[in-house]
Amino acid sequence: MIERIGRRTLRFSDPPRLLSAAAAVGQKEGAGPLGAQFDYVARNDRMGQKSWELAESALQRTAIDLALQKGGLTRDRLDLILAGDLLNQCAGSFLASLHAGVPYLGQYGACSTMAQGLALGACLTASGAAQRLLAAASSHFCSAERQYRFPLAYGGQRAPTAQWTATAAGAAVLAAPDAAKSSPLRITHAVFGRMVELGVKDANNMGAAMAPAACDTLAALLADLGAQPRDFDRIVTGDLGRVGADLLLTLLRGEGIDLAPVYADCGVLLFGEGQDTHAGGSGCGCSAAMLCGPLLRELQAGKSRRLVLAGTGAMMSPTTVQQGQPIAGICHAVVIERSGA
Amino acid sequence: MIERIGRRTLRFSDPPRLLSAAAAVGQKEGAGPLGAQFDYVARNDRMGQKSWELAESALQRTAIDLALQKGGLTRDRLDLILAGDLLNQCAGSFLASLHAGVPYLGQYGACSTMAQGLALGACLTASGAAQRLLAAASSHFCSAERQYRFPLAYGGQRAPTAQWTATAAGAAVLAAPDAAKSSPLRITHAVFGRMVELGVKDANNMGAAMAPAACDTLAALLADLGAQPRDFDRIVTGDLGRVGADLLLTLLRGEGIDLAPVYADCGVLLFGEGQDTHAGGSGCGCSAAMLCGPLLRELQAGKSRRLVLAGTGAMMSPTTVQQGQPIAGICHAVVIERSGA
User: Fold this and answer.
1) How many structural domains is chain B composed of?
2) Would you state the pLDDT for residue A125?
3) Which of B89, B129, B323 lies nearest to residue A108, judging by beta carbons?
4) What DSSP designation does B111 have?
5) Which of chain A's residues have a Cβ under 8 Å away from the Cβ of B332?
6) Element (H, E) at B215
7) Are strands A80-85 and A104-108 parallel, antiparallel or unpaired?
8) B46 shares its domain with B169
9) Does A171 share its domain with A192?
10) Of A124, A259, B244, B310, which has fewest CB within 10 angstroms of its CB?
């Protein structure tokens, strides 16, 4: 069952299993430092489609199909798909699962969407509402750029604090404990995040907008568990970028928490120094692909045993920014453990 | 606990309670046949805000505040808000709860969002993941019109099959069974819908795009329960409009199900004949306000005892329509009962 411990943390006494996962990325992401650890690297970011929006949906569908394949499952074994992305009306996700024939719940948590889907999915599989479900998220540089910023061909200058929307997708299959007894990966805890808004209005500095929310959620998780950062092998945010990651460390230090020894950020990890992505990667697909690729591989290979994914998102739209509204951050966290020796 | 019965229906053995609810609507909706049954009717659809988007968020916030007030609750008693709307990046909802300080999960189910939030919320409160949570949804004619169609001042002609996006919001507080023992309203069953796409590409005929999904979900619910339509006092879709409602009756008749004696549609109920809304109302706020206003009042007053809300949505965006993609429908259903004599 699901138990609340402390103020905000959910504990799964018989934890749902993370059965299988897959990550699909674009060319630039595949050429990054962790490129070899993604399941699929596109030869062409258009994915053979007529539009960037369809390309994004094809990338998400690829991640979904590969996750199912790796778990030895077909779509009809899923009770539910929880998916989301940055496109207006979450079009990348509903197009990806349009003909899947699986019940579908669209999620919108901006770049925190993968963590939102995993936290919600863990509750649903732990409670019997679903035996097996899939959580997915995606983003695409080209569909995001033209929706949020400028037409690609315009070649607008980017601010030093700006992040680079990743062309990436991740998908993970969660299962009820009794539906996947032998699976060693499990989600043991989850924290749903609240919006935190400290007056940031600069859409080119999402890291600053999101760091306070990451601080809020991680401080709550550690306090509720009575844990120290070192009780985890890795605490990973996704995706604050370099600016936000530095801010988070500073904010947590103010609360007496030193995250540095175990901390990493998906946006910082995804691209190399020479890839001209300024503050790092972002987009729903960034943390989704980093988790479903490199981070879970590390767990599976026994290189780490206990991981926190703290997915971060910026609650804004081009319209709200144009209307002068502040940008709130949000951060949902899940604890993923590998059982056994 | 949550038990799966038949193919797709979830049954809550100790059902979560529907503690309180409120509906807030615009002037035109307030002037409709059920206007007196909404908790709040705006004197001015701009709600004293600088933009239509902020007006929509103010309307949703009004519904949330009234629902809490009617339940004798303050925000800090909520563990979670599940909310969504039609605006890009679900801006109406995140703006409405920006400073609530409550964990927040953005939902995107197009016009089915209220039913999606209630079905998901029922799972979360039934399982212990939340003691109390709030589900909300909204839409606003003026913010939707300029985002999906034309600038308001353009005065574009509307097709006879088109629906009128309601200026409306609804909010409902769900509670775990042990947190609200005395509350007579309970959610006993839920069905998560799958996307059904039969080739409709006309964004001015959403009813036709959504009716097949409503048929899919309602047929599954009735089969799983071994029930007839007459086992319910009302089966209400939200919102197929006149065109979609007729289609649904025809489709279900093809499956040997006569829904007519207990059937109604939120989009048909919301506006009167003389209000020039063509096929009827639509928008996330339409079914949200109809449920949280007139329909729950009927249950509370003992005029009905067992209700199905089958929230229907059309999965499309202006971009996908312009790119020639077909429009899938989706339909999530909840069964709401009043206990006691």
Assistant:
1) 2
2) 98
3) B89
4) B
5) 105
6) helix B206-225
7) parallel
8) yes
9) no
10) A259
Q: Cβ–Cβ of B108/A109 closer than 8 Å? A: no
Mean pLDDT, chain A, rounded, equals 97
> What's the CA gap between B332 and B111, in Å, rounded?
10
- Cα separation, A186 vs A121, in Å, equals 12
**66-85 of A, contacting B, C-beta below 8 A:** 79-80, 84
Q: Tell me the two tokens of residue B75.
A: 């925000």
Find, in chain A, the residue whose alpha carbon is nearest to that of B86.
Answer: A89
- Residue B160 and residue B16 share a domain: yes
Question: A302: domain range?
Answer: 184-338
* B181 touching chain A per CB within 8 A: no
Nearest to B19 by CA among B90, B125, B103, B110: B125
- For the whole model, what pTM was predicted? 0.98
Structure tokens given for A70: 């790796």
Q: Could B107 and A104 be called an inter-chain contact, meaning their C-beta atoms sit closer than 8 Å?
A: no
CB < 8 Å to A194, chain B: 100-104
Q: Are both B212 and B158 inside the same structural domain? A: no
User: Which residues fall within 8 angstroms of residue B137, CB to CB, at 6 or more apart?
Assistant: B60, B83, B84, B85, B93, B107, B113, B114, B117, B169, B170, B284, B285, B287, B288
| B148 vs A: CB within 8 A | no
pLDDT at B341 over 60: no
pLDDT tens for each residue of B96-136: 999 999 999 999 999 999 999 999 999 999 999 999 999 99
The per-residue pLDDT for range A84-132, each reduced to its tens digit, is 999 999 999 999 999 999 999 999 999 999 999 999 999 999 999 999 9
